[in-house]
Each structure stands twice: as structure tokens, then as C-alpha cells.
Amino acid sequence: MSSLPPSPESRKIFVGAYAASPCHSVWDPVAERRYLEGLAALPDIGGLEIPFHGSPHRFDTDWFLANLNPDWDYVLTLIPGTMETLAKSPHFGLASRAEKGRQEALNFAERALLAVRAINARAGRPCVRAVEIHSAPQLGNGIAGSSVEEFRDSLSELAAWDWQGAELMVEHCDRYIAGQKPAKGFLSVEQELEAITGATPGPTPVSMLINWGRSALETRDVEEPLRHLRLAREAGRLGGLIFSGCTIEDPLYGHWADSHTPFGGEGTPLATSLLTKSEVARCRDAADWDRLPVRGLKMQALPKDLDVASRVALVQSWVSFLRA
User: Fold this and answer.
1) Contact in structure between 98 and 143 (CB atoms under 8 Å)
2) Which CATH superfamily is domain 8-323 in?
3) Domain locations along the chain
């Protein structure tokens, strides 16, 4: 951990605000505008993680670009569109052994590149700082196959593109483990790092991003995020850490589910959350938090009938928790 004091800018974080949005599944531009205005008033948010479904906005790209906050930076995550495509095309993925599926994933990434350019053009500056990509397809279904070599080749190709200053970050999701139902079921951290370090360097850097909840649910163990952070940092490839929790069992957030559980622990409103203050502290230290290009959180606001003010208040409480 660096002995240097954090700068005011290093305290700013990215928020995967779409997980707590009032318009996660049903579009209401009035409610969404109120939600974004509420977030803009919070002092420690430096930007948003944007879900990419194939376009910069799931419901209305023109609306999104018109309401883009010029003071924020952005991270684009391809996981929503990746999972939606996998439901229809199981061979889809940058690590796919099926060349058609790998090419389909490269085409999807090219659409993300166009989205990056559109967002930057609207902001009038290179505000997209990172693009999160993934080592699909999902394994264990008896259909799809993947390999380090195919993923490495895909990363080599993507690194050669001009992403206008955005860094490519492989967001690790739970690997496939025989006998355990996966949430994502992609490659292991070790395999992803092998592909990252073996890829042909290009103008765009490629690193790894760890999502706490997705690492913890992989082996049902809170030690796993720490192990993944240390592996990525030892390889010199750790680019980001997103705090998103999980539970062993909870009536709202489920059983070892990728449900973006908020912070909690004993004595808090969400006692079932495994993402406690001590786990946050351990991972911040392991990651050298203040030096990471991408630092943030992604949490779901439940129950679903919460009003906009309550959602903003929850995000504020999560940001304050992480800042403290």
C-alpha cells in the first residue's frame, strides 16, 4: 500500500448506478432524470458505469446522450449484452473455440467502440476511461468451449483498436466449477491473466478488474476476492476494483447470487451481506486502492418499489460507507 496520502480526486468513485435505477427494466425518463440529478449532487461520485446492451443506452440512446453529465467520467461494461447474447447464442464470446462465436463477440466489441466514440463526442472530451470485457462463453452447458489461446487472440485484436484513451479491462466473473451452478461460468483468473500477459501489445492497454461479489461467489469464500486481487497485482495487471456484494441466503438478494448486494454485516440493516467493513478494508489494502484507475461500487436497491429519493439516499449511504 502506498504511503502517499490520497489526493482529493482519488476519493472520487465510479458507481454502477443502473443497478439501483428506478428504470432498471421499465423506462421512465422523468424518474431517470430525477435519479441522475440526485446522484450528480453527491460530492464523491466521479462517474458512472454504463451497461452496454448493444447501444449506449438500453431504452433511448438519444435521451442518454442529451442528458450526459459533462463533469463525469464513464466506464462501459459489456456484461449485460454479453449475457443477453449468450442466452440466444451459447458459442458467443471472446474466448470461444467456435470461430463464428468469437467473431460475433468481436463485432459486439466493435459496436462498443462506436458507443465510446459517441459518448466522447457528446462530452467533447475522452470521458470514457475504461471498457469492461469478459471471457465468455459460459462453460459447463455441454455446448460451448473456450480457451486461453482464443481469448489471447481476441485481446490482441482489441488492443490494436483506437479506443480514444479508454483502457480495456477484463472483468473477472466466476469461473466454471464442475458440480456447481455458475452465475457466469467463464475462464479462471489464472487463465485470463495468461491471455492478458500473452496478448500482443497495442496502443490500448489491457488490464484486469475485480468485482468483489463475482469473485466471492465463485468459490463461496470471502478469501477469493483477495486471492484474485493479489494475483492480478503480482502480474502488474490490476486496473480496477468494484465492490458489489453477495449473501449466503437472503429473502431479497438470494443464495450466492450475482445480485449486487450492498455493504452490510452484523449490526447493519443488511446483516446477511458478506461485504462487510473489514472485507472492504482488506481488499482496499490488497489493491492499493488510491492508485487504481477504476474504483467503485455497483449495488442493487431493493425492494423494487423504492421511490427515487430512497434510491438516491441508498447510493449516498453506500458511497459514504466506501469513502469512510
Assistant:
1) no
2) Divalent-metal-dependent TIM barrel enzymes (3.20.20.150)
3) 8-323
Q: Where are the beta strands (DSSP E) in the chain?
A: 13-15, 45-51, 73-77, 128-133, 167-172, 206-211, 238-243, 294-297
**How far apart, in whole angstroms, are the C-alpha atoms of residue 291 and residue 1?**
9
C-alpha–C-alpha distance, residues 28 and 33, integer Å = 9
Q: What residues contact residue 167 under an 8 Å CB cut-off, 6+ apart?
A: 129, 130, 131, 204, 205, 206, 207, 239, 293
Per the confidence metrics, is the pTM higher than 0.90? yes
- The amino acid present at 289, given as its one-letter code, is W
Choose among 95, 128, 96: nearest CA to 113: 128
Nearest to 50 by CA among 27, 66, 68: 68
Tallying the residues shown for the chain, one arrives at 324
pLDDT (tens digit, 9 = 90+) per residue, 282-308?
999 999 999 999 999 999 999 999 999
Q: Radius of gyration of the chain from Cα atoms?
A: 18
SS3 category, 54: coil
